[in-house]
Amino acid sequence: MSETQQNPALAREIAARVEAFVRNVVALYEHDARLGSHGPSEDLVTELRTKAKAAGVLTPHILPDGSHLSQRDTAAVLKASGLSPLGPVAVNTMAPDEGNMYLIGKVGSPDLKARFLAALVSGDARSAFFMTEPADEGGAGSDPSMMKTTAVRDGDHWVVNGRKAFITGAQGAKVGIVMAKSDDGACMFLVELPDPAIRIDRVLDTIDSSMPGGHSVVTIDDLRIPADQMLGQSGEGFKYAQIRLSPARLSHCMRWYGSAARAHEIASNYAFRREAFGRKLIDHEGVGFMLAENMIDLKQAELMIDWCADVLDTGSLGTVESSMTKVAVSEALMRVADRCVQVMGGTGVSGDTVVEQVYREIRAFRIYDGPTEVHKWSLAKKIKRDQAMVQSV
């Protein structure tokens, strides 16, 4: 994957095709029997991606020449893909694959790109990012410096041992990015999966259910990795994590914006059709005001996404901006999803529409890629540093 391209007209055209595919094809699968508590089955993923490829919308944010759309242009495409929780899976813009493709494209050597990236871009393989560790074992979570997984050099290999938790998509993945700590500091390795040294202990039952493979607890036992499969240099893992995490946080905002917008459409349609107490629900101030507040929150979320995308397109890591955006957008979309459920009453908490799933997915979104409180704490520390600098002048 080469450098980014900025082409708003092209992005709008791609987004329109993605939106049509998600609305007209993918949405029909939202009650498919192959959707389980740990995400869509591999068979369903393959079927959807086959249709996406035929429609010319598979991995739409990466162009045929290998160039990547700008973050602003990617926003248009990923918001369209998110109009169904299944949409990003179908068109190959879902986490963790989208973030892993971005990282390998930015940091990987030509050989690593050929060996690992090509299969992800084509949609033939899924991936997992092995960073988070079990909290009850004192491992890394929101604080990656607590990482306990070790990497020890042994000739032309590295030997990795440790435990990982909440590893999205590990079950069924063919590519893994493993984070571990050497004497130099954090490291990242690319590995082929499955590998007998990486054992899935269990797949957790979680509130969300959109990501294939679910979220696993994993034991890594004497995993031998050729030295040339390290991303970059030993000790640079946290730097590469930041290259991945800022755009990945924003991509989550893009995708779930689409889902929240769809939930708002469904709730608005319900309120227009449903009658109670002698008039349509939408004519009741309590309901109408909730839908109006949804419009406001969606617009503010959209503006935050575009603002952060513009910052990242300048080449900035955008850690502050992505933290602000992740907090603002996840909280705003949670309010939108909650109001949609409330407007629809009993129907809103049932599986008759996708609204209840959107609510569950966005609730989880407030936690992964950094909980709201961790981002606020990070921002508060920046304010303190800025004030200390001002006071010292």
Note down, in words, how this protein is organized.
The mean pLDDT is 96. This protein has three domains: 4-94, Acyl-CoA dehydrogenase/oxidase, N-terminal domain (Butyryl-Coa Dehydrogenase, subunit A, domain 1); 128-233, Beta Barrel (Butyryl-CoA Dehydrogenase, subunit A, domain 2); 238-392, Butyryl-CoA Dehydrogenase, subunit A, domain 3 (Up-down Bundle), CATH 1.20.140. It starts with a strand and ends with a helix. The protein contains eleven helices and 13 strands. 48% of the residues are buried. A four-stranded antiparallel sheet has the order 6-7-11-10, with no helix packed on it. Helix 1 runs parallel beside helix 3, helix 3 (71-81) packs across helix 7 (237-273) and helix 9 packs antiparallel against helix 11 (372-392). Strand 2 (35-36) and strand 3 form a beta hairpin. The longest helix is centred in the middle third of the chain and has 37 residues, at 237-273. It has helices spanning 8-24, 42-55, 71-81, 87-91, 97-107, 110-121, 237-273, 285-313, 319-344, 355-365, 372-392; strands at residues 4-5, 35-36, 39-40, 68-69, 127-130, 150-154, 157-168, 175-182, 185-192, 198-204, 215-226, 275-276, 279-280. It has 393 residues and is an alpha+beta fold. Residues 128-205 form the Acyl-CoA oxidase/dehydrogenase middle domain. Residues 235-382 form the Acyl-CoA dehydrogenase/oxidase C-terminal domain.
